[in-house]
Amino acid sequence: MAEEIGLHSLKPAPGSRHRRKRVGRGEGSGMGKTAARGQKGAGARSGSKRNVAYEGGQMPLHMRMRKLRGPHMKKSMPFEPFRTQTQPVNLRDLEKRFDDGAEVTLESLKAVGLATRRDVPVKILGQGELKKKLTVRVHAASKTAREKIEAAGGTLALLDE
What we know:
This protein is of the alpha/beta class.
């Protein structure tokens, strides 16, 4: 007769469960006398613990990692004094959000949800196609963005800081 399968007949897979090794139970067991604790020292005493992150004298991982320096310890990168911060806006975003003949200024960009960070210069980048004639007034623009705006019949004026 076939074995009935149910919750009462469930068993762990053979070899998946192991008995706990009982150390310190006589010389004949192979784990007697010092019970795998070595000879004398802190590790042989009761109450001894190992530091989880200890790497046997090797320089620990947290000390091998790079150090982040600079104002407010920027998490993404170390302080770079000559790095320029700009807000990128691509031509494909202008194509989607502005009508033909519109004027693109810092206020109009903010109104449509682009370049929302205050006091950060805006730079137009050349990704995407531009078929609308736009008048663009921003802080900076890439060479390809300038070419594409002028090819579409628009104008680009750069603002002074």
